[in-house]
Amino acid sequence: MHARDLYFVIPTYRLRDVGETVEAYDEHFRRNGHSPKIIVFDDSSPAAQEKYYPLLERTRTYSDVFYVGPREKEAFTSYIGQRLRDKRLDGLVKNLFRPSYGGNRNCALMYTLGGLVVSADDDMRPYALMEDSLESLDEGEISRGRLHRVNQNGYVRKSFDVLGAFLDVLGKRASDVPANYETGELLVDTAMDLETNATKGVSRENSLLLQKGSVRPDAVVKMAQTFRSGTNDVDALDFAELFLTNDEQVDPDELNELYVLVNFRPAVTKLNWRMDCGVAGYDNTFGLPPFFPTRLRFEDYVYRLWVRQDQVAAAHVDAAQNHTKSNYMRNPVAAEVFNEEVCNLLKRKIKDTLSHTDELTIGFDYSGEVTAEDAARSLDKVAALHSRAIEAAGTAQSERADALRLFAANLQKAFYSFEPDFFQQNLLRIADDVVSVIKGSIELWPTLVEICYFEKDRRGLPQVRVNNQKRT
């Protein structure tokens, strides 16, 4: 295996649309003089794979494109099972790599062992929305952005050398990053809770502020990310709020506001509570901890805890990308609100009981308990949102009134009719299941890294080269 192989990976469960992402990034890399190995990691069902894989073969790229789908993943997990020789571990292995937010990313980690890897979600694009008149940032301010109405003037697309920005820092010591990088303890988002990244409410403008602190000169930048425009981590609660306050909006999923960057500058930090795996890069030379294997959207929270180690650093690089927020195969807003409330609970519990971190794992003492107070914190907030939707429906025009009532009904269904005991019972069941899977997976992970590292070097892991048309 060549040292510092460079990979670009696209985790997806929407194979129908991923071809456009492949072509956009392939063209971007060619224009900037890069030729990483491009791999699509697909969580589609076998039926969807058979239906939409031909669309991937119709793409035209300069670089070879490789594909890891349901058949390749089955062969991959079967090989691991043969090496472990313990049928009792088959369930854990399948959970680690099952179709889910964390499972697909864990496959990418194994396939890119020994190299540097940059990841982009299937609805990302290699440009950013920037205001057309740049403003200077304040002292200690790393970035600033604002919400703009869709189709409003005042911003343009700008493209940055994404891979070049990552290569400036990934795998390097903090003392060796470019001189224009600021250094500090962590970044604080004026619109987000620090440790859960939960929104503080809809904000028309936000900034990332660098909190002063030291980073060890010999700390290695193991993870980095670009800045992001488009939706920029807008919570489902924010989408709900925007829907309730826009008297003309009928569809809660409709995106009428775009997040536009005003300005940004790069920084290296000891911690990174703003981790965004959709636009991230990693130094995977010697392996990394697993993403939480869960269908809940908090798979990357493990890295916010893992990066606390003194010898590890994080970076926001000198580039930005755009999130287009595809609604294809995406859960309704009400279901996403429930998802986020469960995730925020688990984030707080895991962080508060963190017991250790090492090269490939973390440990925590939380075992999945949920108190009545935990349940009430989420239930009261969403019940108030439900009441507002019902009230707004009483004065709205017919089409919007129907949409508001449907949204309220979906909230009521997602949160078990706001019945406290029933909600707590189901929250407890979900937390217990998720935590038990995460703990077992983390314990097994170092053994799997060792198995895959040598097999990748010896014979390679199961994948196919996409038989698409090459551009010259």
Describe it.
The structure is a single chain. This protein is α/β, with parallel strands linked by helices. Helices cover 38% and strands 22% of the residues. The strands form five sheets. Strands 1, 2, 4, 5, 6, 10, 13, 15, 16, 17 and 20 form an eleven-stranded mixed β-sheet that branches. A hairpin with a 4-residue loop joins strand 18 and strand 19 (362-364). Helix 9 packs parallel to helix 11 (398-414). The longest helix is centred in the last third of the chain and has 39 residues, at 420-458. The two termini are 28 Å apart.
Q: Work out the radius of gyration.
A: 22 Å
- Shape summary: globular
The average pLDDT value, as a whole number, equals 93
The domain count comes to: 1
Main beta-sheet strand count, sense and barrel state? 11 strands, mixed
Structural topology:
Elements: E1 5-12, H1 18-31, E2 37-42, H2 46-57, E3 60-61, E4 65-68, H3 70-84, H4 90-97, H5 101-111, E5 115-119, E6 124-125, E7 128-131, E8 141-149, E9 155-158, H6 162-167, E10 182-184, E11 186-189, E12 205-211, E13 220-229, H7 236-245, E14 257-264, E15 267-269, E16 280-283, H8 301-306, E17 312-323, H9 333-352, E18 354-357, E19 362-364, H10 372-393, H11 398-414, H12 420-458, E20 464-465, E21 469-470
Helix pairs in contact: 3-4, 4-12, 7-9, 9-11, 10-11, 10-12
Write a brief caption for the model:
This protein is of the alpha/beta class and 472 residues long.
